[in-house]
Amino acid sequence: MSDYQLTAVGHIHSPYKQKFAIPRQPRLVPQAKAKLVFCADFNREEFVRGLDEFSHIWLLFRFHETAEKGYSAMVRPPRLGGNDRKGVFATRATFRPNAIGMSAVKLEGIEYENGQLSLLLSGIDLLDGTPILDIKPYLPYSDAMTDASAGFADVRPETQMSVDFSDSAIEFIIQQKQYPELKEFIANVLKQDPRPAYKKQKDGEQSYGMTLYNFNIRWQVNGEHNYVSHIEKI
To answer: For residue 135, how far is the Cα from the chain centroid?
Structure first.
């Protein structure tokens, strides 16, 4: 086997500060905004000239938080409730031989401010700090194969989860001005039901917390209902 040296071209500044609650595929939460900040060697506008002609791009990245844990030949996809085992190459699991992932995301714009080149993105599903290995334009005529089948993941994952907010959580959202879509963002993340598969089988109220942007968000789950009880700035 040959070894290859890969260099990050940039890093993601993402609202997802921990793996928990990240959507399992891109574009499931359109309000998830992020910025791809280029590394010094690639911090030139020439590298992205013409990219603004495309609405979506592919990101190739490294699963940097799990890469050192190695890989598994068989994994348990969350889509199957964490019970059935599939070959890692039949999934998008993180524990891969080369720890490389890919996401097709929306390109909202290209920014060059104070000498720093960045891409503005939405529908992101990447952890904050994720190293980006490559960027390619999304080509609808070639990449969108409408007659494709997708095995156990053939349809978009949907849940019946509902979301309500406490009065204090609503007040906090209104008072903060930095993220005007914060309420919709939180709600859509929770509608994906980010809980581990084994937790979904348990009855009774369950309490959880997550960090989005610089906010600590607490909520309870009872059946198919989420109740956001508390939000505070970290």
So the answer is: 16
Cβ atoms < 10 Å from Cβ of 119? 24
Phi/psi of residue 207, nearest 5 degrees:
-110, 140
pTM beyond 0.90: the answer is no
Whole-angstrom Cα distance, residue 39 to residue 58?
Answer: 18
Q: Which two tokens stand for residue 153?
A: 């993941």
Residues 183-193: tens digit of each pLDDT: 999 999 999 99
Closest CA to 160 of 80, 224, 79: 224
Q: In the numeric block, which tokens belong to residue 142?
A: 């070639």
* Sheet of strand 206-212, all strands in order from the earlier edge strand to the far edge: 162-165, 225-233, 215-222, 206-212
Q: Which residues, other chains included, contact 162 with Cβ-Cβ below 8 Å and sequence gap of 6+?
A: 191, 224, 225, 226
